[in-house]
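ARCHIVE RECORD
Type: protein–small molecule complex
Small molecule: zinc ion
Source of inputs: curated submission
Record status: active
Notes field left blank by submitter.
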Amino acid sequence: MAVKYEFIKQCKQSGARLGRVHTPHGIIETPTFMPVGTQATVKTMSPEELKAMDAHIILSNTYHLFLRPGHDIVKRAGGLHKFMNWDRPILTDSGGFQVFSLSEMRKITEEGVHFRSHLNGDKLFLSPEVAMEIQNALGPDIMMAFDECPPYPAEYEYVKQSTERTSRWAERCLKAHARPDDQALFAIVQGGMHKDLRIQSAKDLTSMDFPGYAIGGLSVGEPKHLMYDVLDYTVPILPADKPRYLMGVGSPDALIEGSIRGIDMFDCVLPTRIARNGTTMTSNGRLVIRNAKYAEDFGPLDPNCSCYTCQNYSRAYIRHLLKADETFGIRLTTYHNLHFLLQLMRDVRQAIMEDRLLDFRDSFFATYGLNDNDKGF
Ligand SMILES: [Zn+2]
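STRUCTURE (tokenized, with ligand):
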């Protein structure tokens, strides 16, 4: 078995669980946040910097690496770890989500998805078998089954057909997976916002005995209370001895609420994407560093942060760099935002250890502030 989940303890106050995921490239302490390295790089960060902020695992995107440079080149380079010089665990998604969100002229059939590359219009095809071939070539520790992520909102009948197909595709992925001894294949529970479809999806997939389970199709524009409802009735169906991964979620409130509901792993482009626009997450809430009021603010981004950026640079300097389009400014905000979420997860793990995650949530939001909208961060 490529990946093994070790349960450490459950928080008596919240029900969240503390654990470890053992992989061929090391141990992931959970609950954990995975920085996203779409094109075999976490934008602007070196592997050394990611290690300095103690990222245990990163995520990379099958769709992007399939289009460019191509999985054969990555394989010939010795696999993704070697290609990008990252020797800790890697998870790759299946390409499904990007096919549905980025590519043009998609046509979904039972066999797979025909689409055009968003880069050059090339006609391409992804199926469960192709997604496995690509991820077997890339060589991540954890790979994801090829699924369809239905849009939100979507008609019940469409979501039903799509979810049933995702289960059939999961079975084909299991069969096509060529390296089960050193790569763990996780299945993805779909079903939109429909309770019966979510439960059916979770039951179908758990009967196939995957080494881990993700919950997909959330954080796609629905109000957060709907996402939490789905977690409330889906997570309990998933096996307790396997890792649980909530896909595409990375706002501080959702990381805490997801942990409380028994999620072990999260990923999201949010911290890196907003960093490039000059938006940062701080212990006092969201801070837009480009604002004029920071022009002569010589204090750190977040006085409560121990990261490289906050220990060495001022708000005024970072604002100046971003205004002047200097890439170092983006590096500094990216470093801080990733460190902020990784520190948040360290705090979450400590709070679980000490049976006080609900208290931690309340004190975190007392200074972070509540969202100004349901989908915000
Ligand atoms: Zn910082």
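CURATOR ANNOTATION: The two ends are 37 Å apart (CA to CA).
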